[in-house]
Description:
Blueprint: H1 2-49, H2 53-57, E1 60-67, E2 74-76, H3 77-89, E3 97-105, E4 111-120, E5 123-134, E6 137-147, H4 154-171
Parallel strand pairs: 1-6
Antiparallel strand pairs: 1-2, 3-4, 4-5, 5-6
Amino acid sequence: MKKLVLFIVLVAxxxxxxxxARQKVEEFRIAQSKTAINSVLDAWHKAAADAKFDAYxxxxxxxxIFIGTDATENWKNAEFKAFSKPYFDKGKxxxxxxxxxxxxxxxxxxxxxxxxxxDTQMELCRGSGVVKKVGDEWKIAHYVLSIAVPNDNVKxxxxxxxxxxxIVKSKL
Length: 172
């Protein structure tokens, strides 16, 4: 009986240590993923600022979606490339610098989502998106860009965009 109790205590101790070790490994894996994702997003923004078309689009999945600030800007990757190419060809695309970013990794470690506050030529903007693991690389699968409008200015902005929005709504 004493041997059985000792065996149960020993198994319990090993299990606790194994669970702690598993948690540490999981925390390390998530931290590594977040670091890699931040690097991809920073490199993606830098490639746009440097007008490096291939470097920019290499950070996106082939079926990526980019949603811009205009209500009509909901592009599949090929459409976004066609829209963007003239800007990159002129040597001046856009310049976004992340001021703040939050990254969240899925339980399985193959999908993550993020939000970021950006300093841009449009002043403060918000970006959010989904990245996924493609082989050993993280790639942007979905990105949404929005202009940050102070709550105190929403009425003015709504008035400015009302006519254009009614045209867009009538087409939908």
